[in-house]
Design a protein that fits this description.
This protein is of the alpha+beta class. The protein contains 1 helix and 2 strands; from the N terminus they run H-E-E. The chain has a domain at about 40-70. The chain is elongated.
């Protein structure tokens, strides 16, 4: 008898997810961290976490995005 086990490697904690994503953004030269000018304002941001599924309902991939918030 054969048994097939499928284990989904979900990140264990929020800090681990954010750390991996930040490292990926820096590694891919997505942005450069600089000092904020005194005349400038920061823009808030939030993390979006989603799962992308195959047609059969299995998880295809995990998606993480860093999105800028509205500054009104």
């Amino acid at each position: 008898m054969q048994i097939l086990l499928i284990v989904e490697n979900n990140p264990k904690i929020y800090k681990e997810i954010v750390n991996d994503e930040m490292n990926s953004l820096l590694y891919n030269n997505t942005w450069t961290i600089v000092n904020l000018l005194s005349s400038s304002k920061t823009i808030g941001c939030k993390w979006i976490f989603k799962r992308k599924y195959n047609n059969d309902g299995s998880i295809q991939t995990f998606i993480t995005r860093l999105v800028a918030k509205d500054i009104r």
